[in-house]
Amino acid sequence: MIVSVVATILATALLLRFWTQALRVRPPQQVSHFMLTVSNWLVMPLRRVLPGVGGYDWASLVGALLVVLLATTTYLLAGFGAGDVLILGIHRFLKWIVYGLLGLLFLEVIFSWINPQAPLAPFVRALNEPLLRPLRRVVPPLGGLDLTVMILVLLLWVLIALLDAVFGGLLGMP
Asked: Is 67 exposed, middle or buried (0-12, 13-18, 19+ CB in 10 A)?
């Protein structure tokens, strides 16, 4: 349990670091300080091997994958084979990405309801905008109500179900 919590916090910081750099969004000072403090020990050595290419911080993304794979190795103790642990680790990694996007969407909804002028609101909005923009072109606001966040949440839950079905099939689970 402790391994899972620590891995989740570290992988979240690494994925947030990747996403902010991919979108070229400057995080607020406190968020940036947290991301760098939590993840620099892993990202800096990985950057020697995996430099940023195409504007993407591959070291952060691969670091998050390594953290998830390392946390998943605890399944070896439960009798899973190494191949199954690798597949399960990739499954968990992809689900953590989707859950992170869901978390950002929920934060945006909370900020829009409670305090749209909150200091973190523009940062969260900027992180969600590339995901919401294509939907906003297709789905117009209905009476001033933007349904794209709800639609994207539903699409992400469908993606989670697809990931579960695909990886469950690979692992021989129903």
From this structure: buried
Give the chain's domain count: 1
Q: How far is the CA of 104 from the CAs of 12, 45, 79, 115, in angstroms?
A: 11, 28, 35, 15
Cβ within 8 Å of residue 59, ≥6 positions away: 43, 44, 46, 47, 49, 50, 51, 52
Nearby residues of 42 by Cβ (< 8 Å), 6 or more positions away? 10, 14, 63, 66, 67
* φ, ψ for residue 103, nearest 5 deg: -60, -40
Tokens of 154: 């539903």
- The pLDDT tens digits for 85-133 are 999 999 999 999 999 999 999 999 999 989 999 999 999 999 999 999 9
Of the candidates 62, 69, 74, the residue with the CA atom closest to the CA atom of residue 14: 62
Q: What secondary structure letter does DSSP report for 78? A: G
Is the separation of the CB atoms in 99 and 46 below 8 Å?
no
Answer yes or no: pTM beyond 0.85: yes
What residues make up the domain containing 127? 2-170
Distance in angstroms (rounded) separating the CA atoms of residues 45 and 48: 6
